[in-house]
Structure formats: C-alpha cells, structure tokens
Amino acid sequence: MKLVHVFLLLLCFYLSFCKATLTSGTSREDLVEKKCLEKKYTHLSCNKVFCQPWQKCIEGTCRCKLPYQCPKNSTVMCATNGKSYPTYCHLKSLECLHPATKFLNNGTCKAEGKFSVSLYGTADSEGIVEVQLVDQEKKMFICGSSWTIAEANVACFDLGFQQGALGIRRRFNFPEETYLNSTECLHVLCRGFETSLAECTFTKRRAKGYQGLAGVVCYAQNTEVPTDESFQCVNGKYISRTKACDGVNDCGDQSDELCCKGCQGDSFLCKSGVCIPSQQKCNGEVDCITGDDEVDCEGARRPAIQGLAPVAQEETETLTADMNAERKRIKSLLPKLSCGVRNSNHVRRKRVVGGSLAQDVADFPWQVGIKEADGISCGGIYIGGCWVLTAAHCVRVSKTHRYQIWTSLLDWVKYNREIKVELVNRIIIHEKYNASTYQNDIALIELKGYPNPKICELPQSVPACVPWSPYLFQPNDRCIISGWGRGKDKQRVFSLKWGAVNLIGNCSKFYPNRFYEKEMECAGTVDGSIDACKGDSGGPLVCMDANNVTYVWGVVSWGESCGKPEFPGVYTKVANYYDWISYQVGRSLISQYNI
C-alpha cells in the first residue's frame, strides 16, 4: 500500500511539473512559429486574416477601397470633419485614405456634436479614462469591469499613441473625489481594431456600490526595455512573451496572434495558425480564413456581441449605436462569388481512397480536358467566366487555334451526353515561366464563348475557387487529383480518374535544389499508390475547406517515376499566383473573400 502512495505522490509531482512546464515562458515561445514571424504579419495581412469591408486584398495586404466600391444601403454617418457620408463603409473608406477623418456618430452631423477621450492623471500617457459622448453634456469615467486590453488599445490609438496600450493594471492614486461618480460609470465594448472609442458600443448601467474605474498606460517610445522574455510586435511594441498566442490582441496590430503552433488559455487555434478569442468560435461570423471556427456549431451558437450581457438587477441603457453589427451587415451586402460548391441537387458519392473512375460529371465540375490532335493532351481547371487554368508547359501561344477545351467529359472514347466543346480565344503564359526548372508553370486559357466574346455558357461546369492565402491548407491535409493521365504501367487512360493524396511539407528532401517552396506544392501517398502522371499535367489538385468549399490548390506540374513513394507529385502552388490571375481575369471573377 505504501508503494501505491509513493507512486501517487510521484505521479502528482510529475503532473505538477508538466503543468509548470506548459505555463513557462519556454513552452510559450515554442508555440510561436519563428519562420512565420519573419514575414511580419499584422491585422492588415490578408494571407492570415480577412480584410474589413472597406478594404480589399492586394498582394497579401489589406488596402483601402475607394468609397464608391462600398455597398450603398445603410444609415448616414457623421465624421469628425463635420461632413455626413451615405454609409459607415464610405466613411471608413475615406478614413483609410485620409486618417485624420474619423467616425463621430451615426446619423447626420450636428453643429454641436463632438466626442472626446482624455486621461485623468498626472502624465500624458497614463491615467483614468474619461470620455464625452456625442450629445452628452459632461465627461464620464469608464467602468473597470468592462475594460480590457482591446478597449485600452483603442483609447490609446484615439489619443495618438500608434502602438496602443502598455497595460491596464497600474494603480492610480488620485483624490477621493475622483471616485464619487464611479457607480455611474460607462461600460464600453470594442473589437480592438477601431481607430476611435467613438466606434465602440457604450452602455450605462445603474449598479450598486463602487465598481472601479478604467485606467490605461499608453505605450510611448522607450516605455519598456526589451528582455529575453519579451515579444516584439511588428509595430515595434514589446510585450511579455507569455502573452503571445493567447487569443488576446495585446500588440494592437494582432501580430502576437498570427504565427502560432498552439494557443494558450481561453482561445481557439485556426488551422491557419491564428489564435482567436474563444468567444469568436460559433458566433455566426467566420473569423478564421480557413472557416473552422464556424464548424460543428449546432447548439453552440454564441451571441453576436460578447461582454454586454446585463448583470442581474441592473438597468442597462445603450448610449451609442452598435457599429460592429453595422460592420457585419455591410459584409453581408458585399458581392458573393459562387465557386467551389457542387450543384445542390447532386448527392455526393462516398469516395474510397485509391485511383478510381469518375462516375458523374458533377463529381468534378471544374475539370476540363485540353484536346490537341488525336486526344486529350493535358487537363485544366475551370475558374469562372471564360477562363481555364492550366500548366504553362501544356500550351503554346502559337497553337492557340488548334486547342479545344472539353468540359463535362468523363471518357474521350465513349462520349457522355453532357460534353461541351469550346474553342480558345487566347493563351496567357506566365511571363516568368522557366521551362527547365518548371518555376511559374502556370497559364490561363480564355475561351472564345458563344455567341458573343466574354460570354461562356457551361451549364454542367462549376468553377473551383482560387485561393488567395498560402495558409488555407496545410501539410497532411487530404486533397483530390484527377485527370486522364497514363497509369503506372504507362498505359493510355481514356476515362477520367481521381485519387486522394495528402499535402507534403518539406519537399526539398525529395527534390534537392529543384523544389521552390513558395511556388510549388508536393502531394502524394505514403506508398506512392496514388499520383499524377504523364497526361495529367495542367489538371487540378483541389482541396476542400471546413465549409465544404473546393479550392484549386495546385496545378499538376512535374515529378519523377510516377507512383513511387520517394518521388511525390509536384504542383504549381496556385495561392502564390492569386494576384497574377486576378490581374488577367478581373478581381471580381475570382475573389471569394476580400473583394
């Protein structure tokens, strides 16, 4: 029995040690992906996050839209310049272009309307926060119970401190009369990316007893001396390393939450390596670019706004408009692109891992065949409009008139009735394509259309979505390849075949000095039983996200020795060419998000 007690004591000691290790700075440091940090991602990096409705994603960065690109159905908004604008999106778009013009309130402007935020204290950068709301006669303090680093960062942004807040926990010693009205303080809720507290939601609660007041220390230059335990934000601010990857935007630019291998505390890890607050899981809005925060949410839906639930026996009065709700409403009005989703009346057949014959054109509605001379020479991927994506080595500009694009094709010997044949208008090969290294092995085919140019009717075809971020899918994710390529024994294949493969990381070990990570993707199976082969070139490697939307993740490019485990297939990584594709075909045609 004593041995049992000793064992239990040792077990408790071991578990305590493990717990201590998991909460130590070293383990938290291990949660951060250093290679990712070198790319300096922030809340404006659309490879990692969604842009705001008044922004668009260009070359991996959220940039300002022009006001006319905003939806027009909304409430009139007033800005600090005294002018009224037709929508919140219009006003924020203008602020994006001219930062001095900020949101004041919803509704038309009034001569006496104003908003102010100030610090009650002995220094310019710290103190108790006071605000004067529009149409309110006096300044009021903010309740400490609703005050977090999100609100503190916005307050400091508002006061001109570009790096946000250092913290909210410092004690402020002021005369007792400061606290006389603490029972009538305001509650405030911010998302964290507002540029003024005026955009946050203010409520007033009649509460009993002293609540404590919100204080802040804004981050000024040389506020903190960096140490080995510091994490440097992209904006230059230093925070404790223990605050990285905890779902809380301590940096103010979100850079502490965008390169994570795991998450601390009450937070959720997106497949893209981003930590978000657990409150954003199942809240009805997709916050992870991979969509996994809104999966398996039946019975787990959270309120649209967190933190404003009324406390028992309190009377709550909302004093300002909910601009976060307005932001989400504007998002719902943006154009929605239909891609990557099969016809709703089609029942998906259960797939068995392994090379199999396609049974229905609706299984691969984006697959096309490129026919030259006596057969299908390459595959391609329909991406919408009159455009097909393929490999550069599959086509020649000089042969444009000789190519035919076959859609809805299952077998090019025994034709199925859904087949439609399109002629080619032009071919665009990537200007940096290198035939010897297969770098930039990507091309676009524009169909002629009928009866008019630019109008293509492909009733059985559904475009695959074009990915904008290299973080949508990760190594080991299962994806699908398809085509009419030759089998392992190099026999000619006439029927469309498909197979499931896994994305493979660190492919340089298979192809040293020949694999370019930014431009190429590897995929295959452990035993090499499923692989793309000669004749599959230009065809699709498609992956499905958490919401069952299909993206063309790769274009079949090259490889060696079909079907051998040490030689996986190599694909052109389409996400790397999102801007090139959108420049050629028009951004609105392929922008699933961040339009």
Structure description:
12% of the residues lie in helices and 25% in strands. It is α+β, with helices and mostly antiparallel strands and 595 residues long. Strands 25-26-27-30-29-28 form a six-stranded antiparallel barrel. Strands 19-20-21-24-23-22 form a six-stranded antiparallel barrel. The longest helix has 21 residues, at 2-22. The chain starts with a helix and ends in a 5-residue tail after the last helix. Residues 1-26, 305-313 and 344-354 have low confidence and may be disordered.
Number of strands: 30
The main pleated sheet reads as: 6 strands, antiparallel, barrel
Gyration radius from CA atoms, angstroms: 28 Å
Gross geometry: elongated
Q: Briefly note the structural class of the backbone.
A: alpha+beta
Q: Based on the structure, what is the oligomeric state of the protein chains?
A: single chain
Helix content: 10-25%
Low-confidence stretches: 1-26, 305-313, 344-354
Number of separate helices: 8
Ends apart, CA distance between termini? 69 Å
Features:
single chain, 595 residues, alpha+beta, six-stranded antiparallel β-barrel, elongated, disordered N terminus
